[in-house]
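Example record

One chain of 214 residues, shown exactly as stored in the release files.
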Amino acid sequence: MYKHPLLDRDKMTAREALDILIEGNHRFTNDREQDKDFKSLIQITKDKQHPFSSFLSCSDSRAPVELLFDQALGDVFSVRLAGNIASDKAIGSLEFGSKYLGSKLIVVMGHTSCGAVKAACDDFKDGHIGEIINLIKPSIRHEKTITDPAQRNSKNSDFVEKICALNVKYQIDTIIRCSDIIDDMLQTKQIGIVGAVYDISNGKVDFLEETFIG
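Predicted structure tokens for this chain:
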């Protein structure tokens, strides 16, 4: 919650922010969510927001960030786009959350059975959806373990999940490569960044520790 874990948010480290999220997801998956006084939180946050974490996650209706991590008003600066893609506007939003709102950790989170990832695996084209697909396609090129063309599509669940994780890593790389603001804040240890994958079948979030910078 907003006052948990009784740390000054300005002094919070990226690792402490990550630990709060891990604890929150554990509560969520064990039906032990904390009680939240939303009426009080509305008053606490009405004049200023100070989220401790920022998310770039998928728009999927089954993956609402605040619920998955048992967080409340003012805790999470949430950017949601299909396929958790690091578009210019998404990166700008993350820059704002980090530099001007004081968020200490950026989380790029994909999820299992992602429709956008499946669409990319099938080279789907329709309307503006293609703009999303184009930002996921590099992850498909990076996948080298499945070589049979007949297995490189959405019918192969293993291939889809590999692309999901690779896409998370690719979007992190894109954020750092395209944002001098975020790159500088990472270099000076003002913030951290990490990737994650949410399993829609059991509610658990797997943080990709090898992606953590902080």
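Notes: The chain has a mean pLDDT of 94.
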